[in-house]
Design a protein that fits this description.
Layout (H helix, E strand, L loop, with lengths): L1 H68 L6 H65 L12
Length: 152
Amino acid sequence: MAIAIVLGVVAAAGAVYGGIESKAAADKNAANANQSAQEEQMRAQLNIEQQQRTNAYKEGAQVAAYGGSGVAMTGSPLDELASQKISDNFEAQVQYFNGEVSANADTADAAYQQTIGNAQLISGVAQGASSLSSFLVSKNGAPGGSGSGSNG
């Protein structure tokens, strides 16, 4: 009988421990996803800053070329520069938006991993409680019943 009690408690404790370990793994996955989200946001910000520097350099080179050739900065060349600047800024914003979307996906994954971890912990505790109660019922009989245990 004592061995059976110990085995019942061990089974319950094992289920709880499994839930705790599963939650710890899910929490680690969530932390990794959060780290990835932060890295994506930093990368997006760096990309847009680099794109803006490249655009400014290109625009400066174009203005210098127009000025050096004797073309007046009115009319078609100026319109082309403005159009190019709008296009370049749009491209930079798209890159930044893509980085933010990726970061948001990583953040959502982190929240999902935490939810999974919490569910696994609850499941482990519930399995442990179920295992222990099943063991106790099998040894002592159902509450209110005649039971099949040694007290009947």
